[in-house]
Amino acid sequence: xxxxxxxxxxxxxxxxxxxxxxxxxxxxxxxxxxxxxxxxxxxxxxxxxxxxxxxxxxxxxxxxxxxxxxxxxxxxxxxxxxxxxxxxxxxxxxxxxxxxxxxx
Length: 104
Fold this sequence. Notes:
Blueprint: H1 11-14, H2 16-26, E1 31-32, H3 33-40, H4 44-56, E2 60-67, E3 70-77, H5 79-100
Antiparallel strand pairs: 1-3, 2-3
C-alpha cells in the first residue's frame, strides 16, 4: 500500500512565502520584520499576512518594541514552530527520495 507522502507536508508551511519565512527564522534566533521583508523580497502586506498565519498556528511570535524611537518588530520561531519546520523538511526529503526510487 502506497502512502501519499505529499499528505504529510504541513499545509501551513508549504506555501512558498511561509516556507521562506520558516527557513530564514530556522537559521537565526530572531530577525526584524524589515530584515525579513528585504531578505525575502516581500511587500509589507504580503509578509504581514503570512506572519499572521504562522503566528495563529503557534509557529512564531512577534514582539513589537522600539529601537531608537522607531517601531521594531522582532520575529522568532517558537519551539512548536521549530519542531514543525524540522518535521516538514524531513517529510519533504522523504518525498523527494521516493521520486528517485522508481521500480523498473
